[in-house]
Design a protein that fits this description.
By secondary structure, this protein is mainly β. It has three helices and 32 strands.
Length: 419
Amino acid sequence: MRKPLLLLGLLWLSACRGVLEVSIEREASPPASLLGKVAYIAGGDVWVVELDTNQRTRLTRDGRNSRPIWSADGRWIAYYKGDQLWALEVGAGREYLISDTPVDEFAWSPVQDQLAYLSAASGLVVWRAIEQSAQNLVESEAMMTLVHFAWDPTGKWLAYEARGAESRLHKTSLDGVSSTLYMATDRMQIPHLASWSGDGRWLLVWMGPASALAEMDGLPLCLIAADGGTPRCLREKMLLKSDWLSCSPEGSLHLALIAGAGRETWINKGLAWMNPENMKLNWLVKPEEQAVGYPAWSPDGKSIAYSASPFLSPSEAYSQREAALAGRRIWLMDFVSGRRNPLTRDERYRDERPLWSADGQHILFARISETGASLWLMEADGDSLQQVVDELTPRPDPLGDYGYIDWSAWYDWWRPGVP
């Protein structure tokens, strides 16, 4: 009789107090990272700030670090420590020495935890983070210098320059398959590798004479098919700055670029776009309207953010240089209508290098003032402006390279879903 009585008792409790509910408390899942993380240099050390939570972590403590670059999945950061190359596993906080000899440049694969780098001692090398092993893809030779390289969008190929008795452009796969894409027939058509197009069909290359002065004042941008062939070039010159090129999102063939000859970045620099199929240059902002830099397509391909200062005539180029540089603001252009408007207006700051969040709702950019350099985040219409990093040090030289600052030496933004 005990079981029926127990059942009746439970039914009586249900009738008096409602249905008896049993809940199981589960551990809350961490919130998804929407805005991602910024790795930056403060006091010569690598720091990380989580933009969604504002949590900050200091990763190095020797004050000798620069150029922090995220891996594609946000697990690793590679950086210079002096002239050596190191990598850090962010979650574990472990540092790894990748190369104890000077490294000229490095870049993560856009799809895997594989770090490629160039050095005079080793040539072109790929370091695999998971196995912590290195593979030498192209050996360094006494009569040949490897100059620049670039990953293709799939992470399967690397293009690189080779300089020696001849100047050549090659590509190599991770399994050792290689081919020559272009060989200069004279010293007037030396290739300078910029990047791959967003669809991987083209290599973007500046071409011109073997002259340091000519390179400083800009060279025409050319396209070479990913399988090799004759270069197709624009007539207009542009400075050899990879972050002054921006490929539109996948599905279209538009390339935004800053065109205009002359090493000074505060004059004769306009914003244009071209379609690689027809190589026609279309002006969006002419050099006589604004002096433009750092273009960035929005993720939906409808807008371009950029930094710009007011127009200066050649006669004012140096007398008004400081005022022109200080007058740089972040602008937004609607690609279809051509309408443009400033997103920042604070005269205390010079604003540069806009970067889009993965969803296109926010823009991160760098600021310089009389007291220092910092990073700020705003909504894509300029609202809700907030400082997210108050110190980038050592402070960048405001004059930089004729007014150009390579901001990748100070920070990198890992955005979920953005290669």
